[in-house]
Amino acid sequence: MPRTTRTSAALACALGAAIIVGGCGGGGTGASGPSAAGGGSGQVKVGLITKTETNPFFVKMKEGAEAAAKASGVELLTAAGKFDGDNAGQVTAVENMVAAGVKGILITPSDSKAIVPALRKARSAGVMVIALDSPTEPQDATDALFATDNLKAGELIGQYAKAAMAGKPTKIATLDLAPGVAVGKLRHDGFLKGYGIAEGDPSIVCSQDTGGDQAKGQTAMENCLQKAPDINVVYTINEPAALGAYTALKAKGREKDVLIVSVDGGCTGTKAVQSGQIAATSQQYPLKMAEEGVKAVLTFAKSGTKASGYTDTGATLVSDKPVTGVESKDTAFGLQNCWG
Question: Domain Periplasmic binding protein spans what residues (predicted)?
Answer without folding.
Answer: 46-302
